[in-house]
Design brief:
By secondary structure, the protein is an alpha/beta fold. It has one domain: Rossmann fold, CATH 3.40.50. Helices cover about 45% and strands about 10% of the residues. It contains 7 helices and 7 strands. The strands form 3 sheets. It has a 3-stranded parallel sheet, sandwiched between helices. α3 packs across α4. The longest helix has 15 residues. The protein is globular. The protein starts with 5 loop residues before the first helix and ends with a strand.
Length: about 170
């Protein structure tokens, strides 16, 4: 079974937005959304700003945003997003752009570009091990590196959340 639909996306976004407050029964409740937004605003004086790119105008922005920014260069946007994703990235099905982000994140982790080594999780075991076997390639390229212990592929959203909780970022060491 391949994971699809909004329920998984809501659960994963809640994990990051609300520091593990996940509604196991479905989408975020309005009262939870406002409290998560308030918590995010307390942590920073600036409101959350989704940052898409003009190049991919079809990509939606976050439903809970108050402002929207657009980059003219997708490479800058991706590099910045991957750099601040200290607690890991979950890669879903995608095309060449997604594959580029997989390798870009692997480079940041493998070479300690941002100081931490963070987990890389692949949503859809069959997709990432057979259809687009990036997971095997990542494992073979990182043998003996810190990053080698930070890969996983799952079909279950709860398993992804559990893996991310069990594998926090660690300081990069040569």
């Amino acid at each position: 079974m391949e994971p699809r639909g909004e329920r998984g996306a809501h659960k994963l976004s809640l994990f990051w937005t609300c520091e593990s407050r996940i509604d196991a029964e479905g989408p975020i409740a309005p009262s939870t959304a406002s409290s998560c937004g308030d918590a995010a605003k307390d942590a920073s004086s600036a409101p959350p700003v989704p940052s898409g790119t003009w190049f991919y105008g079809h990509e939606p922005t976050n439903l809970f945003c108050t402002h929207v920014a657009k980059y003219f260069s997708n490479a800058l946007r991706e590099d910045g997003l991957l750099a601040v994703a200290r607690h890991g990235v979950v890669f879903a099905h995608g095309g060449p752009g997604t594959m580029q982000e997989v390798f870009q994140d692997a480079c940041q982790n493998a070479y300690g570009t941002v100081g931490d080594v963070s987990p890389m999780v692949f949503l859809g075991q069959r997709y990432w091990t057979q259809d687009r076997p990036a997971l095997a390639l990542m494992r073979s390229m990182t043998t003996g590196m810190q990053l080698a212990e930070r890969f996983a592929a799952f079909d279950d959203i709860d398993a992804i959340v559990a893996f991310l909780k069990a594998h926090p970022p660690v300081p990069y060491r040569k």
